[in-house]
C-alpha cells in the first residue's frame, strides 16, 4: 500500500518521540515507559491530534480499538512497526 | 430453612470487621468537587433547571418566572399543535398508556406501523424502523450493521450516541478530523479494500450548529465503496425541498444508505428512527438488540409522531419563519460583539463561544434571571474544550421575543465581560 519501507523499532520510537514534542506541554522527559494518560496527561482532543499526526507520518490507521490497548510510548512503537509490517 | 444447612443464629462476638468495600464512587470525586466549587461561587446549577409550567413551544415558567425558551430542540414548534395533541389523546384513550412490551413481541400497535409509514412517505424510502429513542437508533443501527472485521469511520465531533454505537459493536473504529473531506479520504484510502465500511456523518453538528460538506464527503465514501449513514436529528423539517435534511438540500437524495432521525426535536415528542432504501433493511428488526430488548413507545407517542411528521411535510411557512428567526438572532448576537460558532446562520442552532466555565455560567445565569433560557454546554460534550451558550430557535418565536432575547443578551454580556475587546 505504501512505498515507504518498514521502519525498525528504533526509528519508530525516534519518530514518535519527535511527534510527541509539539504536544508535550508539561515538558515531560519521554522514554519508552512514558504513559500518554498518566505522564503526559493528554485529554481526548490532544490524543486525537497526536494520533492523526502519527498516522500521517507513517501512512497508517491506528483504530480506536487499537488505541484503547496502547498506554505507553513503547507500546505505540510496537504497534507502528506491526502495522507497517502488515502493509 | 435454606438449603445450605444449619446456620448460626448470630455472628460470633469476636468476628472480624468486614473489610471496607472498595468504593466504586471514588472515581466521581473530581466531578463532585468541580460541581461543588462552582455552586460555592453562588452560581445556579445549569444542569438542574425545572420547567414548572410550559405555556407554549417558546414559553415556560422557571422558578416562578415567565421565561423565553431559547434552548430546546422544538425547532418546528409542533408540541402544542392541536392536531398533534388530539392524535395523542385519541391514541391514549383507545390504546391505553403503554405497550408493556418489545416491538418484536407484543409491543407493536397500529400506530407504530402508522408512524413508520409516515416516515417512508416523508423520506421516500422503502424501509423505516422506529426505536424508543434517537440514542437507541444510533446505538442499534451502527452496532448491528458493522460487524467484526468491518470498519466504522466517524467524524471526531460525532454525537455520544454514535460513539456509543461504535463501542457497543465489534467493528474497527476509525476517526477523522471534524468535517475534513481530505482527512476522511486519506483514512479510507489506508484501509484494506475488502472489508465492509460504514461512514457515519451528521447533517448539522449540534454543538456549534455547523453543517457538514456532505456532498463531498459522500462522494469520497462512495469512491472507497463505503456505505453512508447520516444523522439528521437537527435538520428534519427545514432543509431541502421536502424537509428531509441537509443531505437532501445538498442533492444527495438517492446516495445515502441510512438516515437516522429523532422524534424529540422537530417532531416534538420522543423516539428515534432509521430510514433506508436498502432492500434488506428491515431484517434489523430480528437482529438489532437496542430495538428488541426494550419496551416500545407508548401508543400516544407514536400517534403524535405520525401526525406531526405528516404536518412537517407541508410546513413551508414554519420553515421560513424558523430560518428568518435564526438569521435575525445570529446577526443580532454578532452585532453585540459576541463570538459565535459559525460565520453565518447555518442551522437553527446559534452557539455563543465563551472563555471559560465561570464566564459561561455567569452569563447563563444572568440570562435565566432575566427570563431567557439557553443551554450551557461544556467539555466533553463540546469540541476543542470550549464553553458554549447554545441558542436554538423555534419557528414560533415572535419578532418581539427575539428582540427581548437580544436585549437581555446585551445586558448579560456587558455584566460578564463577554464582549470585552470586541469590535463594537
What would the keywords be for this entry?
heterodimer, A: 87 residues, mainly alpha, 4 helices, B: 424 residues, alpha/beta, four-stranded mixed sheet
Task: Tell me the quaternary state.
Answer: heterodimer
Shape of chain A: globular
Structural class estimated from helices and strands of chain B:
alpha/beta
What is the number of helical segments of chain B per DSSP (H or I, 4+ residues)? 13
Structural commentary:
The complex is a heterodimer of chains A (87) and B (424). Chain A has 4 helices and no strands. Chain A has helices at residues 9-20, 44-58, 64-69, 73-86. The longest helix of chain A is centred in the middle third of the chain and has 15 residues, at 44-58. Chain A is globular, with a radius of gyration of 12 Å. The termini of chain A are close together. Chain B contains 13 helices and 16 strands. Chain B has helices at 29-40, 82-95, 110-123, 134-145, 160-168, 181-190, 214-223, 246-249, 289-292, 299-312, 316-335, 357-369, 399-416; strands spanning 53-56, 59-62, 65-69, 127-131, 151-155, 172-176, 197-202, 204-205, 210-211, 227-231, 258-262, 272-276, 349-354, 372-373, 375-377, 387-392. In chain B, the strands form 4 sheets. A 7-stranded mixed beta sheet of chain B has the order 4-12-11-10-7-5-6, sandwiched between helices. A 4-stranded mixed beta sheet of chain B has the order 1-2-3-14. In chain B, α11 packs parallel to α13. In chain B, 49% of the residues are buried.
Please outline the helices and strands.
The complex is a heterodimer of chains A (87) and B (424).
Chain A lengths: L8 H12 L23 H15 L5 H6 L3 H14 L1
Chain B lengths: L28 H12 L12 E4 L2 E4 L2 E5 L12 H14 L14 H14 L3 E5 L2 H12 L5 E5 L4 H9 L3 E5 L4 H10 L6 E6 L1 E2 L4 E2 L2 H10 L3 E5 L14 H4 L8 E5 L9 E5 L12 H4 L6 H14 L3 H20 L13 E6 L2 H13 L2 E2 L1 E3 L9 E6 L6 H18 L8
Parallel strand pairs in B: 3-14, 5-6, 5-7, 7-10, 10-11
Antiparallel strand pairs in B: 1-2, 2-3, 4-12, 8-9, 11-12, 13-16, 15-16
